[in-house]
Fold this sequence. Notes:
Blueprint: E1 5-9, H1 13-22, E2 29-32, H2 41-47, E3 51-53, H3 59-62, E4 65-70, H4 79-86, E5 90-91, H5 94-101, E6 105-110, H6 115-129, E7 135-139, E8 155-159, H7 162-166, E9 173-178, H8 186-189, H9 192-204, E10 206-211, H10 245-264, H11 274-282, E11 293-298, E12 301-305, H12 312-326, E13 331-336, E14 357-361, H13 365-372, E15 377-380, H14 384-394, E16 400-403, H15 416-428
Parallel strand pairs: 1-2, 1-4, 2-3, 4-5, 6-8, 6-9, 7-8, 9-10, 12-16, 13-14, 13-16, 14-15
Antiparallel strand pairs: 11-12
Amino acid sequence: MEEKFPLVIGFGATGSSLIDYLSNSYEKIFLIEDWKDNPNLKRIIQEIPKVVINPKLDHDLFSQVSKIYPSPGVPSDHVIFVHARKNKLQVSSDIQEFLVNHKSTKILVTGTNGKTSTCLLIKHLFEYFYPNLKIAALGNIGEPVLDYLEKEVDVSIIEVSSFQLELLNQIEFEIGLLLNIEQDHLDRHGTFEDYKAMKEKVLKHSAFNISFNNKNSLGKDYKNYHNHELPKGFLESSTLSNWPLHDKQNLRASIEVLNTYSKHYKGIKNDKNLYEDILKSLKSFKKLPHRFEFVKQCEGVSFINDSKATNIDAMIKAVSSANQYSQDGNIYLICGGDLKGQDILSADLSELSNVKNILIYGKDKATIFNSMNKYSECLSVQDLESAFKISVSMAKEGDHVLLAPACSSLDMFSDYRERGDRFKQLVNDL
């Protein structure tokens, strides 16, 4: 029988890890990379000559292909998928390979907002309560899963996006957590129902599933274990006094994962003071930047960087949390960018009535302005720098200036990190 070889599409972090993984088993690998000037291709040419880069897409090629491995960022309408269906080729992914081949207990975490923070909280709690276990946070959090395939890991906490779940074939794993589902990535998935269906795969294929989303459509097709009540006053404890509301929700979900694992896999020793111990552990937890990050206070004005608020729901949660701290002061909101297909006209923006002024810039600023000006005074500005300058001129002691864009950054920045860093630079230059 003629030998066949894998085909990888896209050569970012995931594509690179796929090439490294597959090169151990195959004498040839096909790679499709639409970005012809990708500097990482030089490494492949020099180090792994068995990789055939951008072969001609014809019958001869697909007669040699065993399986197709797309990177998560590859759009579903890419021409390669037409050929895959025509030639009845299986499509797989790095996540799929890891789930099949690694022996760890797998915990998959998804949701529109809070995935990375929750994964890190779960990892922190597991390391505290299970000090003898090897715990790893992988996937969309920035650590390709295949880099850990040969490593000894007892519990794998895997952040998965809707793009990654779209590539996931039916396979069972231990625990699935769905945090929330709000409008996002509709430019990729087309409709909210299709996007929701991708997210809900994390519940369909898990042995034990936990859902904090109130918009599930799976009905009785799954069990869920999110009814564990926290002790009265737990979320109001002094340890959590500076935590925004959405981070407290992420913590609640993380504790539920801990409880589920303890109940079904490995109990916690001496857990009589479980919640007191959780609060003790959180004193050493370090939050990630760009997620409701307090930058500094200048002349009594507090500056908060929530550049990771890349959709409408995340922006609303940021405003709600800022309102929690503002007391008698005003909130000045900076937002804008690329809406990514979100239907802001139908969104509930009533929380914005708590905002004094909204400074709007970027690709979709006209649409955003027309939606938000019903709730607060809005100004359309040229860019982030202009928005910042005007907000500083208006803010007074006790006020908050909040960057919560509700949009992708790609119309003006390389990613949300560059956008957040630019905001912090502007603050620190005051």
